[in-house]
């Protein structure tokens, strides 16, 4: 049963496997690593200016959330609602894992009777304003450390404002 033909097939299979991984490594390096030599790298250089100070200043552009909210599209926010409806409801008085979102815009942050809120949300303020909802929906765990909401957030400000517009329109 164990003759030279079987041994030859085993060695050929090992060589073919090694060759497959070597070609894969070469292809991955060609695609993902920057070029060397006279070629320009496919990455952006980071230019650091040394002004003698150790502190790094972070400059953020101020975004007028309310001006963008005036242009928000509630119909586009309806498609984003699918991320929320696993835990929330739009029917008044019907809580899920999370509280009902009926009338959430302008409502007190801990305003749903019978729902056990985490104290972390109270750090956002007293009411769910458009700005507070925008901040919270961007990254719930960062905006309210200790919150029980496990959603990772929406990175696009347009998506967040469209969702808020949908929540407000659906509550009317």
From TrEMBL:
Residues 72-171 form the Cytochrome c domain. It comes from the Bacteria. Coiled coil: none annotated. This is Cytochrome c family protein. Keywords: Electron transport, Heme, Iron, Metal-binding, Transport. One of its GO terms (molecular function) is heme binding. Gene3D superfamilies: Cytochrome c-like domain (1.10.760.10).
């Amino acid at each position: 049963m164990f003759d030279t033909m079987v041994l030859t097939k085993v060695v050929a299979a090992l060589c073919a496997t090694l060759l497959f991984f070597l070609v894969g490594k070469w292809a991955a390096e060609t695609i993902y690593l920057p070029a060397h030599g006279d070629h320009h790298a496919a990455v952006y250089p980071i230019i650091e200016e040394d002004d003698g100070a150790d502190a790094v200043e972070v400059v953020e552009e101020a975004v007028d959330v309310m001006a963008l909210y005036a242009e928000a599209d509630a119909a586009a926010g309806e498609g984003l609602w699918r991320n929320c409806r696993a835990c929330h409801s739009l029917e008044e008085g019907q809580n899920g894992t999370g509280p009902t979102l009926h009338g959430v815009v302008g409502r007190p942050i801990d305003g749903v009777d019978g729902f056990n809120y985490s104290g972390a949300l109270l750090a956002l303020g007293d009411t769910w304003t458009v700005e507070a909802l925008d901040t919270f929906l961007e990254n719930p765990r960062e905006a309210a450390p200790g919150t029980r909401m496990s959603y990772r957030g929406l990175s696009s400000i347009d998506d967040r404002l469209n969702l808020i517009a949908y929540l407000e329109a659906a509550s009317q």
